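User: Hey, my collaborator sent me this sequence without any context and asked if I could get a structure. I don't really work with proteins. Can you help?
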Amino acid sequence: MGIFGVFGRNGSNWRLKALAIWNLIAFSYFCTLTSVTTYLVLFEMIPFIFGEFATSVMKHDIFTCFILLQVVGNVVLVITTDSSIHNLPPLWNKPEIRNISSRKRKTTDEQKKNLVKISNQSVTRRKDADKNVNSSSAGTPEMDAKSPLHSETEEINTTVCDSCNALAPKRSHHCLLCNECILKRDHHCFFMCTCIGFYNQKYFILWCFYMFIGSFYSLVIIAMYLKKYFNISFGMFSLLTLLPNTLYGWWFESSVIPYQLLIVGVFYACLTCGLAAAGFFYWQLYIVLQGQTTYEAWKGILTYSNSEMLCNFKDVFGPFWYISIFLPLPLPQKGLGVY
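Assistant: No problem. I've predicted the 3D structure and written it out in structure-token form, which is a compact way to encode the shape of the chain:
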């Protein structure tokens, strides 16, 4: 995790270090809650609730393991997938295009103009080559207008980052915590200690979806367990009264054992996480269909949006979106997030 670099980086102020610590706390909270909830649901609650029905136990175990696989798998993919400008295609890795200076110094306006000029000349030559090749042998795979290389260089959509001293596609933004430019940066996720960008946004969205499903599934199982094990009934206002009554009984009357307090605490933690995951999932799916990032949605920017929602959806989830929904796999994705 690049977040650890904050503590040893020159120029990191106390605010940045505090945010880095909060990152680690949030990530630890997620790992702890996921582990504790999975253990309780799999090995304590499901056997106790459905112990008399072996088939029901097996079905619930399979479903729980499936949700766990999706949650953990997509978290791993979010963290390990590089969405920074270091993951750019070979065309962008040319020294005269990618790096402004080998020295760590601020880029001047003159250097920015020169570098954009170099990029313009490079693309102009490629366009001329496209015309020549198309006139003699139209449709060849190397220079076909539909090839990924052509689509990535057809328009000049670049920006210069003073912090990275590098040229990057537009919609890239520098993250102070990650200390690098992120392609089509949406936000920095504190629960995963990394930025959400072009190449890992689909995994983040799927993580939100399965966290939402898993959290509310756990809520149902925990409610059934509380009713059967502790004889706690649920009514219209139970969500408002369960926690206060449990704390009161534990602190003042000693009628609540610590184990019951733990189960009730996990119940409310799952409720909170489920609502948060549902909110994140709704928002992410909305901006994906609109072809926007969170920043662009706030500013009302629609420059990079396609006219069709399905195209916007495929730009994020890739051509194999129907596989990634059910299997957390590092499937290929085309483009740079600049349309």
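In plain terms: Residues 87-183 form one domain. You can pass these tokens on to your collaborator as they are.
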